Amino acid sequence: MHEYSVAQALMDRIESEVTARGATAVHRICLRIGDASGVEPELLASAFAILKDRTVCQAAALVIERVPVRWACPMCSREIPAGDVLRCSACGAAARLAGGDEIVLAQLELEVP
Amino acid sequence: MCDTCGCGDPHLVPVEVQEKILSVNDRQAAHNRAHFAAHGVLAINLMGSPGSGKTAVLEATARSFAGQYRVRAIAGDLETDRDAERLRRAGIPTRAITTGSACHLDAEMVHHALHHDHLHETDVLFVENVGNLVCPAVYDLGQAFNVVALAVTEGEDKPLKYPVMFRRADLVLLTKVDLLPHLDISIEAITDALARVMPVPHAIPISARTGEGLAAWFEWLTTRASQARTQTGDGHGHGHGHHHHDPA
Asked: d(Cα B225, Cα B123) in Å, to the nearest integer?
């Protein structure tokens, strides 16, 4: 369950932002998690719920935007549906992942006195 | 305090971060990668399920390949250093990382293990990851290549079930092919599944028991080990000290 390590890394990153800005609480945490990132949003949310207890994030809402997997041809930009052989049917080039592997802290909403 | 109307409400400040959550690990991995490059070391992150034959592949590699190249290993396991002992018996100096409950190695653990080792006396460093087809794929360790061991006994659809692991693989070693006559499994079905999750699918069928396919695996390794060696400029064994920089 690597989601715990991801949740811990997230907590560390938020705490450094909170310290840098002298915030007293975190109201909202927005993440972007790709469907091909290897991180399960539900597991990440449960791991974070355990970690945030008695921290500056205790009352924070965790909002996770899921990003679908997109494969595309690097030559002609043609999309290749997930599940297909990852080779462009038009120009034969190997497909490139155009989205869906992100594990990103996008925005925070901080309470600053 | 709100300065607009003096109502006493605190300010809510939106902050755009837009940063990878694992950026600390990524910076540590970049630091490891720089170490490997400076010493002309080819670092391989060897992943696969428990029992997929990772240790057996390395033992077979030690038998034939280690005569020409100085091979070392770091072996990650939840408990025990049995894999490390097996590798040492096969002639590969190995450091064990016992992760306890952690299901994967991260760049910091590898960096810590590197500090006890002699990179300047190494051509190829294998990092044998914790047996697991999920978690290790998420963490960059600073390796040059990801190699995934997939035993033919694991079934034809494993690449489709664990696409993240196989998408990140540079090479898949299809192990235990000596068992194929006893199984209803075809190599073609596995390579078709790989082509749906790996943009540049590359698989080498091998058997550590019979030696089948090992020559192709050694050729793959040799090509990359010599590239790693020449890319340092003056070859391996140069006299640079260990320059340590904390990750920024």
From this structure: 7
- Residue B20: closest C-alpha in chain A: A104
User: Which amino acid, A69?
Assistant: V
- State the complex-level ipTM: 0.94
Which of A80-94, A96-110, B89-103 has the lowest average pLDDT? Answer: B89-103
List residues in chain A touching B: CB distance below 8 A.
1-2, 5-6, 9-10, 12-13, 17, 21, 23-25, 27, 31, 36-39, 71, 83-87, 94-97, 102-113
Looking at the DSSP assignment, which residues form a beta bridge with residue B220?
none
Query: Listing from the earlier edge strand, what are the strands of the sheet with B42-48?
Result: B94-98, B71-77, B124-128, B42-48, B145-151, B171-175, B203-205
Among the residues of chain B, which ranges form H helices? 23-38, 54-65, 82-89, 107-114, 158-161, 163-167, 187-195, 214-230
Q: Quick one: average pLDDT of A92-108?
A: 96
pLDDT tens profile B212-230:
999 999 999 999 999 998 8
- pLDDT for the residue B241: 41
Half-sphere exposure of A73 (CA within 13 A, CB side): 15
Rounded to whole angstroms, the Cα distance separating B24 from B108 reads 9
